[in-house]
Amino acid sequence: MIDGRHAQILAARSEAASPAADEASRVAARAFHMMGPDAERELAGEEAMAWEGLLEVARRLRRGAEDVLVERFDLSISMLGITGRLSRADQRTLRQTALADAMGLSLSRVSRVIDLLEKRALVERRTCPADARATNVTLTRQGSALTAQAQHELFAFVRAGFFDSLEPGEVATLAAVFMRLLNAPPTA
Asked: Residue 99 in contact with residue 110, Cβ under 8 Å?
């Protein structure tokens, strides 16, 4: 059940009756659906919108970026993350385990993505000369060219879909807020 304060906030948004207000109300209400009575009791409408808005914007931007990459290059974000890291590596080569660590993904997940890239001749796997137990992954010339094109398109998407909607001061504020949150000690 939504308490009086939250009911007033949601009612005020509903009275505005604009599609944007309805969307904001729907997104903010997710905080109450997901976190239940604690959120209903303790979160102000702006807090609910800040949290759920962050999640929703991130979801939409990631989905939009993925759509651009798949439609134009038949690449997922994970694929571009791997080829992008390889494009910046010495001799365009990294150990498969280093790629998994850098991506924050399991070794098996990265291995499956590399399988797909290898089938398209975008990367090659080789035994590491310094450690026969390790596998190196090298970006091919074809993979390098496709990566550069995909990065260019993704940059254009991020510029148009994110930065162009913000004022310069808002970008600085978001950067400061996210840096503070990223540097905060983990909570239990």
From this structure: yes
What domain range is 104 assigned to? Answer: 74-188
- Residues of the chain predicted below pLDDT 50: 1-4, 7-8, 11, 13-16
The CA distance from 180 to 188, in Å, is: 18
Q: Specify the length of the chain in residues.
A: 188
Number of domains in the chain: 2
Cβ(135)–Cβ(128) below 8 Å: yes
With 0-12 / 13-18 / 19 or more C-beta atoms within 10 angstroms meaning exposed / middle / buried, residue 105 is middle
Among the listed residues 128, 127, 124, the one whose alpha carbon sits nearest the alpha carbon of residue 115:
124
Residue 143 and residue 55 in one domain: no
Cβ–Cβ < 8 Å for 49, 40:
no
Within a domain: 130: yes
Instruction: Say what the pLDDT of residue 1 is.
Output: 41
